[in-house]
Design brief:
Strand order of the largest sheet: 1-2
Number of helices: 7
Largest sheet: 2 strands, antiparallel
Order of helices and strands: HHHHHEEHH
Radius of gyration: 23 Å
Shape: elongated
Length: 136
């Protein structure tokens, strides 16, 4: 079970913690993202694996999670003689931040609705009125 909201607010969170909080990304995902952000050119999965010192299949899974979360982009590079391979690069950080802000706003609105529902459901006057109606 996740920590309570009050415990999360007491914790020291760094900006990379947003990746875990918003998207459930793991430590390896964050390492792969950092490798792609700091790379001079787009990387293949093998390049990412080398940068984080992991097996190709492990890096591939992390790259897929980053791709699904919108943190990175995939580009196909074609060979002259036929065939292709993919390279990955970080997505625009402003766009990622805008998406996180949108998610936070949606979450805030939903929590506000749930708090209102809580107030209506557990309001003492409403509860007393319901009890008196049941006893009649």
């Amino acid at each position: 079970m996740p920590d309570s909201m009050s415990k999360q607010l007491e914790a020291d969170i760094e900006c990379e913690g947003l990746l875990e909080c918003f998207y459930g990304l793991k430590q390896l995902d964050k390492e792969c993202y950092r490798a792609l952000v700091t790379a001079d050119d787009p990387l293949t999965v093998d390049g990412v694996a080398d940068a984080v010192d992991r097996e190709r299949s492990t890096a591939y899974r992390a790259v897929q999670r980053l791709l699904e979360s919108g943190f990175i982009e995939k580009e196909q590079v074609n060979y002259d003689q036929g065939g292709y391979y993919h390279v990955y690069s970080s997505a625009d950080s402003d766009e990622i931040a805008t998406n996180m802000q949108r998610m936070l706003n949606d979450w805030y609105a939903e929590m506000g609705q749930l708090i209102g529902e809580f107030e209506r459901k557990y309001d003492r006057e409403s509860t007393d009125d319901a009890r008196s109606a049941m006893s009649r």
